[in-house]
Design goal:
The protein is of the alpha/beta class. The chain has helices at 9-16, 21-31, 40-51, 61-72, 98-114, 121-130, 172-187, 202-215, 263-274, 305-310; strands at residues 139-143, 153-158, 168-169, 197-201, 221-225, 227-230, 233-236, 250-258, 279-288, 315-322, 327-328.
């Protein structure tokens, strides 16, 4: 997958096995001892489904089991690599039918109990269910502003606060889980997002921008926006950094949280002033809700919804929802 970061994982595993789509289908049929007659068009349909929402068709659980064994045989067909079927669909897991999601979870749980050293993508999902990610609440889908003909539905998780009225301290596991969730949303935008600059708002946003730039955007340039509050206004510190870019560029702004203050609008205006023809995207770790229910039914149930709409971003990505007074990043990054 690290050698082929621009394709879905199910396709990256096929590349690693050195197979064309037709050869992958033949290998699949060999695993079933030719009780199936799968063709290359089916392999193509599965990979198309993993690449973009609304296209192709998903593989079912039994097909993933067979495909994992087929690719585990390697380029020459004689290897015995142990591939998890959940890893084949790691970035598109939420789009599988509920029955297949449950089957993958159960399979991974049994697998990890027999192989404690193996940690797969689906095993991490099991860890969340079993309490490893104790800060992470339930998942739910939310419709957000997005590009024309893009996928407006993202999968968000809640951050329940066991101590109302106090900041919720985020640990590194939860922080990393949120970054992975943002990456998954970006991959499922509906088209490939090429970003020229990732801007981080303050130190926590800078950490987010660094991870996303490295993991998702081929180590694109990284900018830094240090915001200082002066009375009732916000100013950008002179230590802020603005990378050079072409006249028309694509920029992702990363912020740790969105509450009531219009920091987002101020920053968007400043970025557009420096990069007049830029397309702006926005990724936030935690968005505050207006009510006590964190599983909001609508984007407008977020306190910063109008702020984000007014900033006119091409698309918005949100990892989690939170309640007042907010969340505190690891190591108290500001």
């Amino acid at each position: 997958m690290s050698r082929n970061p621009d394709v879905p994982s199910i396709q990256a595993y096929r590349y690693a096995a050195g197979l064309s789509q037709d050869q992958a289908a033949l290998r699949y049929n060999e695993v079933t001892e030719h009780q199936t007659s799968l063709g290359g068009t089916t392999i193509n349909a599965w990979e198309t489904w993993a690449r973009a929402r609304g296209a192709g068709s998903p593989p079912n659980f039994s097909s993933l089991l067979i495909l994992a064994e087929a690719y585990g045989r390697g380029p020459l067909g004689v290897a015995a690599e142990d591939i998890s079927p959940g890893d084949l669909v790691s970035e598109a897991y939420e789009r599988l039918p509920p029955e297949d999601q449950l089957s993958l979870k159960k399979f991974s749980a049994r697998r990890s109990s027999h192989s404690p050293g193996v940690v797969s993508a689906t095993t991490q999902l099991d860890r969340q269910v079993e309490g490893w990610g104790h800060l992470v609440g339930s998942d739910f889908n939310l419709t957000v502003p997005t590009v024309d003909y893009g996928n407006p539905e993202i999968c968000v998780f809640s951050l329940p606060n066991p101590r109302p009225g106090n900041l919720l301290d985020i640990d590194w596991w939860t922080f990393g889980f949120g970054i992975e969730r943002l990456i998954r949303q970006i991959k499922n935008l509906g088209r490939r997002l090429e970003v020229d600059i990732c801007f981080g708002v303050n130190e926590a946003g800078l950490v987010m921008a660094t991870f996303l730039a490295s993991a998702q955007f081929s180590r694109c340039a990284i900018g830094y926006l240090r915001c200082n509050k002066v009375r009732d206004s916000i100013v950008l510190d002179s230590t802020s950094f603005y990378p050079d870019a072409e006249e028309a560029t694509t920029i992702l702004i990363c912020d740790f949280e969105v509450k009531h203050a219009d920091v987002v609008g101020f920053i968007a205006s400043e970025i557009r002033r420096r990069y007049p023809k830029a397309l702006l995207y926005f990724a936030v770790f935690g968005a505050m809700t207006k009510g006590s229910d964190l599983e909001v039914a609508s984007f407008d149930d977020l306190t910063g919804s109008q702020i984000m709409r007014a900033a006119d971003f091409s698309a918005v990505f949100i990892a989690a929802t939170m309640s007042p007074p907010g969340i505190e990043p690891p190591l108290e990054l500001r």
